[in-house]
Design goal:
Layout: E1 4-8, H1 12-24, E2 28-32, H2 35-44, E3 49-52, H3 61-70, E4 79-83, H4 89-98, E5 102-105, H5 110-122, H6 137-178, E6 183-188, E7 193-196, H7 199-204, H8 208-211, H9 216-220, H10 225-239, E8 244-252, E9 258-270, E10 273-283, H11 285-306, E11 312-316, E12 322-325, H12 327-333, H13 337-340, H14 354-367, E13 369-378, E14 384-396, E15 399-408, H15 410-432, E16 436-441, E17 446-449, H16 453-457, H17 461-466, H18 469-472, H19 475-493, E18 503-510, E19 516-527, E20 533-542, H20 544-578, H21 580-600, H22 604-615, H23 626-629, H24 637-644, H25 646-654, H26 663-669, H27 690-705, H28 716-725, H29 733-744
């Protein structure tokens, strides 16, 4: 498997060079422009190693390292600082204290660099990250700010130096121009190069004789493609009498090197008529690159200042007047930029206690810097905030200024206070409630358990903390836990875990005396700020007595089912003895109704009720004269009215029968219809029991499909057409759909005689 390295550097060139080295070694490389971009990519695809620069906008390398080393899932990733600018031994020590494994200075020999990186990969499993200031964020901010301020000071010094060098460089080029080191050439009206200065060889690598007498178009061919068209148009403008000021072009020298040239041109006039052109080409490659690097360096400083998420200020030390502030400062204070610049801090009333500023200035004079001093500051709307104030002297235009950084800790202090209060309340509650409250790490090791465990399971808190989960649960319950955790961890990877809410399990725990107790266990996840699952917490409630009662009830229900089943079988036999047709219809309807209910996904209790009721749903026909039931011709209205009374009669027979199911009501309602056109009570919709709605569909399908005393069977297709036609009108839509699936897709068949 290839080694995956994440390179973090705001310089595209630096990233490209290092990427080439690593890929030549056969490693896989991904890139990030800053710490924030890196964190997003680390979580998307964890690398085997992180190689980071220090000074970057948005989030610097130190902050990135700290975030990684404080996260339990990222802390073991080897972290390497690869930096060149503004470094000293303090920077290296700070990096290693943060938990970095290497601090390598640029440029480094490729062999030396790769040797260090290969060693880290080989030692990856042995890495023990350093502790980062325990839980004290203030220490981090002090050291972090010290490093950043030092680098900013050096940065500004380098900017001044670069500006001076740039001025000197421009003087040098001016002197060179005066000594005709540039390329000066003349072109005749026929576009022929009439003369060219010796500088052409120095700049482009061509001798004078190689160029003189050739067409200017040949010289244009030395330009990179994106500048060739511009040159053609410019030459046309000069021949038209226009003077063209210095314009930047890219030239390709004889050796293939690309150089930046600054080219100007003027027409040669004689008697007001253009006789040719003269042009000067100056090699400004070095100046161009210097300016580009300077602009880049200035932009980096500007990015660090203006894009810093913490409020930053540059103020005049003597007057306390604000010279510059970043966007974070205006957003934090509520002031507009124009309200701040040129105004003294004391005039804005930002300091709750002005003596805090006096104390900070005194400390600056004594020690040179102030790191993370806690003060109170006032926002525009009067809100008072707790702030860690850091400051350092800097020189701007030979004036001593104060570079300050603020870190608002108001919410943190409030959160810490709330956390302490919450912990007190939580401990009070957990100490008093009879349920067992617990917390586990991701290794399922108990890290907290409430004192109630003594009363419930007989163990002390200390004893429970030492026990593995295997020692706490019976093998059957342990298997349930492992299955549940495996399922939840898989869902966790897909972002679908129930641990966002609650997972409810019924588990059997060992008591200290060797017996077992049944617990209703409610489990939820513990997550860090990034949403990563770091542990579990839950509550155990003793349901042993309830469980025993439920088991006893279940045994009673089983006995009751047997008794009721026997009773129903007697009723079926009685109906069969009087009317074999009715008995056969009931049993076929009962099987179909049970199958429909199962297809609908109804509960076991509901399915049992449907099956039992369907088996005797026409028991009320015992009150109907046998000659009507078996009449081979169509019934009269009076005869049909007597038949319709069987629902009421069936209810009367069953209403006093004790049963866990509403048998009497199901029988009573099995001829009701969804639109209220049924009988005997003309119920509609949800007024009808779902069991009766299922039975109604099965009853109709069986009746149409099978023989009747007064007609032969129509068959199953007309029966299905009837319920499909009246789906949702006469018959329950879900029951109809389930019935259709049984016959059309599941191959269900009625056992017709």
């Amino acid at each position: 498997m290839k080694v995956h390295v994440l390179i973090v550097d705001d310089s595209g060139t630096n990233r490209s060079v290092l990427k080439g080295i690593l890929e030549d070694h056969g490693w896989e490389v991904s890139e990030a422009e800053n710490g924030k971009d890196a964190l997003d990519k680390i979580w998307a695809n964890q690398p085997d190693m992180i190689v980071s620069d220090i000074l970057m906008p948005v989030m610097d390398g130190y902050a990135l390292c700290r975030e990684c080393k404080m996260d339990p899932y990222l802390k073991d990733i080897p972290f390497v600082f690869y930096a060149a600018t503004y470094t000293d031994p303090k920077d290296q020590k700070f990096a290693l204290d943060l938990g970095a494994q290497r601090f390598i200075l640029k440029p480094s020999e490729t062999d030396v660099l790769m040797k260090n990186l290969v060693e880290l990969i080989e030692e990856k499993r042995k890495i023990q990250p350093a502790e980062l200031f325990s839980d004290e964020e203030t220490a981090f901010f002090k050291r972090h700010n010290d490093v950043i301020f030092r680098k900013l000071e050096r940065k500004m010094s380098e900017l001044k130096k670069a500006n001076q060098e740039l001025i000197e460089l421009e003087d040098k080029y001016r002197l060179s121009f005066e000594n005709v080191s540039d390329v000066i050439f003349m072109v005749d009206m026929d576009y022929t190069i009439a003369s060219i200065s010796p500088g052409v060889e120095k700049i482009l690598g061509y001798k004078q004789q190689d160029v003189i007498g050739r067409s200017i178009c040949d010289l244009i061919q030395l330009l990179t493609p994106k500048y060739a068209d511009l040159a053609k148009k410019t030459i046309g403008r000069i021949f038209s009498g226009e003077t063209i000021p210095a314009t930047i072009y890219e030239f390709v020298t004889k050796s293939g090197e690309v150089k930046i040239g600054e080219v100007s041109g003027s027409p040669i006039l004689q008697n007001g008529k253009v006789e040719g052109i003269v042009s000067v080409a100056r090699d400004v490659t070095d100046r161009y690159l210097a300016e580009k690097n300077l602009l880049k360096s200035e932009k980096k400083f500007s990015d660090i200042f203006h894009l810093n998420p913490n409020p930053m200020i540059i103020s005049d030390l003597a007057t306390s007047v604000y010279i510059d502030v970043n966007q974070s400062f205006t957003a934090w204070t509520g002031f507009k930029r124009e309200d701040i610049i040129g105004v003294a801090a004391l005039d804005l009333h930002l300091w709750v206690d002005p003596q805090d500023r006096v104390r900070i200035i005194r400390t600056l004079h004594e020690s040179g810097d102030v790191n993370a001093e806690e003060v109170r500051m006032r926002q525009k709307d009067g809100t008072i905030r707790n702030v860690l104030f850091s400051a350092r002297f800097i020189e701007i235009d030979q004036k001593t200024c104060l570079l300050s950084l603020l870190h608002d800790i108001t919410e943190r202090k409030q959160a810490e206070l709330a956390m302490r209060e919450s912990e007190k309340r939580y401990k009070f509650i957990t100490d008093k409630i009879p349920d067992i409250v617990w917390m586990l790490n991701m290794n399922l090791q108990t890290v907290y358990v409430s004192p109630s465990i003594r009363n419930v399971l007989g163990f002390s808190e200390e004893e429970r903390m030492k026990q593995s989960v295997e020692e706490q649960l019976t093998p059957e319950s342990l298997a349930i836990v492992f299955d549940a955790m495996a399922r939840e961890l898989k869902l966790e990877e897909e972002g679908l875990s129930n641990l966002e809410r609650n997972l409810i399990l019924t588990l059997e725990y060992y008591h200290r005396d060797g017996s077992t107790r049944w617990m209703e266990t409610i489990v939820s996840g513990i997550r860090n700020d990034q949403g990563i699952l770091t542990g579990l917490h839950g509550v155990n409630r003793d349901i042993t007595e309830r469980r025993r009662a439920e088991e006893k009830l279940q045994r009673t229900l089983v006995s009751l089912r047997k008794a009721i089943g026997a009773t129903i079988q007697v009723m079926v036999s009685a109906v069969e003895a009087r009317d074999p047709y009715t008995a056969g219809h009931q049993m076929r309807s009962a099987d179909l109704a049970r199958s429909i209910a199962t297809e609908m996904g109804l509960g076991e209790q509901c399915i049992d009720a449907i099956r039992m009721a369907a088996a005797i749903h026409d028991i009320g026909k015992l009150s109907v004269p046998a000659e009507i039931l078996t009449k081979p011709t169509k019934l009269t209205n009076i005869e049909f009215s007597l038949i319709k009374e069987h629902a009421q009669k069936g209810f009367d027979i069953l209403k006093n029968v004790e049963s866990p199911w509403p048998l009497a009501q199901i029988v009573y309602q099995h001829h009701e219809r969804m639109d209220g056109t049924g009988y005997p009570r003309r119920l509609k919709g949800d007024e009808i029991l779902v069991e009766a709605r299922v039975l109604a569909v099965a009853d109709v399908v069986e009746a149409i499909a099978s023989n009747r005393p007064y007609r032969p069977a129509f068959g199953i297709e007309p029966a299905l057409q009837e319920i499909e036609k009246n789906r949702g009108v006469l018959y329950d839509a879900r029951a109809v759909d389930a019935c259709m699936r049984l016959f059309r897709q599941r191959g269900y068949c009625l056992a017709l005689s």
